[in-house]
Amino acid sequence: MPRFYITTPIYYVNDLPHIGHAYSTVTADVLARYHKLFGEEVRLLTGVDEHGQKVEQAAAKRGLSPQAHCDEMQENWRKIWLELGIEYDVFFRTTDAFHKKAVQDCLQELWDKGEIYAEDYEGLYSVSEEIFYTEKDLVDGKTPQGNEVVPIKEKNYFFRMSRYQKELIAHIEKNPDFVQPDFRRNEVLGFLRQPLHDLCISRPKARLAWGIEIPFDKDYVTYVWFDALLNYATGMGYQQKERAQEFQTWWVDTPPVHLIGKDILTTHAVYWPTMLMALGVPLPKTIFGHGWWLAADGGKMSKSKGNAVKPLDLKDIVGVDSLRYFLIRDIALGNDSTFAPELVVSRVNADLANNLGNLLARVTNLVDKNFEGAAPALPSPLAPETTSLFQSLEGLANRVREKIEALDPQGAVVQVVEVLNEANKYVGDRAPWKQVKTDLPAAAETLGACLEVLRVAGLLLTPVMPTKMQELLQSVGWTPKPNFADARKTRAIPVGAKVTKGDPLFPRVEWKSEP
Ligand code: MSP
Fold first, then answer.
1. Which CATH number fits domain 341-487: 1.10.730.10, 3.10.270.10, 3.40.640.10, 3.10.180.10?
2. Among 210, 218, 207, 235, which residue's Cα sits nearest to residue 102?
3. Residues lining ligand 1, judged by CB closer than 6 Å?
């Protein structure tokens, strides 16, 4: 059975999840669910990044020990993912004992191999980013992200990242899918045109105690990114003898797709592969840097803007599945897009209430009233316009699959929407509410064809809207567990299957923006 392994970033527990985090996780979940629909065995890993200064400071602010703080915070993350219908296989915590041990074993291995060395270091350090900068990296005395830096001098341990510069460039050039999208790949190659420095992978405990202790120097903990990046591999059994087979299956034989935000491209596309090279571990298949949701004014979405409704709370207004739909439909994976409650509401009303929901309501109501709720038989031959609708429906499943395999979930959804638009036009033209009075066989054809469109659309949108599409499939008389083979058929609903009209699947959302 083909396999698919996808990861989200593991999120800092200094804060609660917001719409940006939800976006990464929902997208990974949608991709994972599509691959399951295709009949593949899938692993989705998400989790939390618990060490480092940010988390230590957040804990101190609350008067808690870092561990107590993390134990509490991770519950919030799990809870939100549950509410958003995320079907993760692994919820990763970097404070888990097996991970800490595996990270220490990696450090020891690299130290023994001479891949790590000690040196006095003077640099400009950004506390909030946990990254050292040199003078030339700064913009107006601040980091490129606009954060403060402070000068620091201390002994530290360094990973010989510079050794792998050439090998990494060659790998990126030879494997066009390794860093995606293309413009991010160029960005990384551009970065690698400058000399690559070695990576500081330690923090003195005197300055930061909350981390994984360096096994060959008890006065230090490891840099939070060195610890965190390893999660993707340790989560599948790396550095754990008793899980060697699992690691073979879920890493070596199934290289992962790392879905990340564009903000953490360098750590993933430069630090991480060079760490793996030094450790002699195969590289991931793809690192995909997605874009950001921005506030309506083009700026970062920030809590200080005091939006009346927190973006993530929109799930309670439009519904979880509708919010998932918006997050996939309104952004091309890789690009930025605008987030505003009004945009969510208008998208949901247009695509889900008016297009999909309305088609479902019309068709099931007419079948209920005129065919005693039994799926009508399709005649043959079909009318030309029905044939043409079925022609669009025929290749739909494969088109969706191609888009998903190309990591284009928006494109996949748009394919389905186009066929739904066509079906709505078809219904409008054939007016089955009139046909039922004048020509019952023609009405049967119109309604039967639409039931098939709805069935296929329902199957193909299940990964995006698992709960709502389950309801839709039920109401068009389709009960088997969703699978791809059925989505490729165009005449599958058994004649006489029970079609039920229910409450509107996607009630129109009324929304008044704040004055
Ligand atoms: N802990 C690190 C990641 C370590 S992975 C080994 C981290 N955590 S984070 O909590 O700051 O999450 C950052 C991620 O959240 C981004 O990479 C992105 O995936 C997501 N987003 C945060 N804000 C976002 C938007 N406004 N829009 C889209 N995604 C954004 O970095």
1. 1.10.730.10
2. 235
3. 9-12, 20-21, 23-24, 49, 228-229, 231, 260-261, 263-264, 292-293, 301
